[in-house]
Design goal:
This protein is of the alpha+beta class. It is built from six helices and seven strands; from the N terminus they run H-H-H-H-H-E-E-E-E-E-E-E-H. A hairpin with a 2-residue loop joins strand 5 and strand 6. The N terminus and C terminus are likely disordered. This is DUF3299 domain-containing protein.
Length: about 250
Amino acid sequence: MLKFLSLSVLLLGATVAHAERGMLDWADLIDEAAQSYEDPYRDLSAEQLTALVEVATMQSQLAATLDDDQRSELTQRLTDVKVAFAEDGIDADWLIAQRWVVAERRRNAAWAGDQAVDGQTVTLGGYAIPAPADQDGVPTLYLVPERGMCSHMPPPPPNQMVRVRLVGDWRPKTIYEPVRLTGQMTVVPTEREVIVVDGPVRMQAAFTMEAIEVEPLAFTGQTSAEGNAWAEQMAQRLRGVKGQDLNEN
């Protein structure tokens, strides 16, 4: 009997440990190795970035048909801006030539999901954005880490968005409904257009989850005076803090 109880305790401990390992934060979805890349724009000041855009614009204008006076004035302005860059040790022409290279690096970093979660059954909390059903009829939603994303705020990078295929009867009653989902996560990039609050939004998700459990979280719509306390309480619930009563208001 004692041996049986000891084995039960060990199995219970292993189950709890496994569940804790399956609870993810949003930062766990990012492939950190892919975030280190050369970006020559990163150290430019706001003024330098504005000036660089001006250089690119003037170069484009010079390629158009201009009269002699316009061309002379534009050429002088362009020379002055490039000289200012050179005084700071910056090659403006090289920077402009790098723009598509850097854009591709940034895109790759934004789409890079951590392969360690691929195929794993995990739990993740966030805010649900209702979406149309998939072609096979399975209802879907998008899970994002913050309220307002994709409508009042820009969409998150793809490695911070999860396309979720739902099971059971639960559906979000409203946009940004707080929820905690458990299911098998795969690194399967998807893109599609979804109508959100302000119109169509291109939803780019690096992950797909096949949900097996849905845990709606309380949303009480507190006043602004209670906002900070509510935000902290919701953050705790989304992180799955031990001992937190999910039905508590």
